[in-house]
Amino acid sequence: MGALSRRSSLILLQMVAVVSILSVAPLAGGGRGLLLLGGWQPIKDIKDPHIKEIGRFAVNEYNNQTSASLRFKKVMSGESQVVAGMNYRLIIAAKDGKTTRNYEAVVWDKPWEHFRQLTSFKPVTH
């Protein structure tokens, strides 16, 4: 097989793999429908245990990084984005003393590598 033929076969194989992943990948975390690479998609089931776990992680990691003492209450809404893994942009209700406030958290998750990183956490301002 010539070099051009091998290259064409490799490109075709990569294209099939990408199409397969994007069209039939099982969707953990809230049944979001088809995955669209790069675009933010609403999370339909914010009560999904994986989404709650991501929300708890965001609050705990923020506390660890800042010495804050927020307490996770619930995920109010969220979106996901396919990257090298998955980004989750969540609106989280967290209690600070007696006051509950909403925060926007972005978490990068790559479960197959056991990798999770808080990339942004800020109060929601109206």
From TrEMBL:
Q: Does the keyword Nucleus apply?
A: no
- Determine the domain of life of the protein's source: Eukaryota
Q: Which Gene3D superfamilies does the UniProt record give? A: 3.10.450.10
Q: Which UniProt keywords apply?
A: Protease inhibitor, Thiol protease inhibitor
Is Transport found in the keyword set? no
Q: Name one Pfam family in it.
A: SQAPI
- What SUPFAM superfamilies does UniProt report for this protein, alphabetically? Cystatin/monellin
InterPro entries in the cross-refs: Cystatin_dom, Cystatin_sf
- Cystatin domain: residues covered: 35-124
Q: Which GO terms describe its molecular function?
A: cysteine-type endopeptidase inhibitor activity
Protein name per the record: Cystatin domain-containing protein
Q: Which organism is it from?
A: Trapa natans
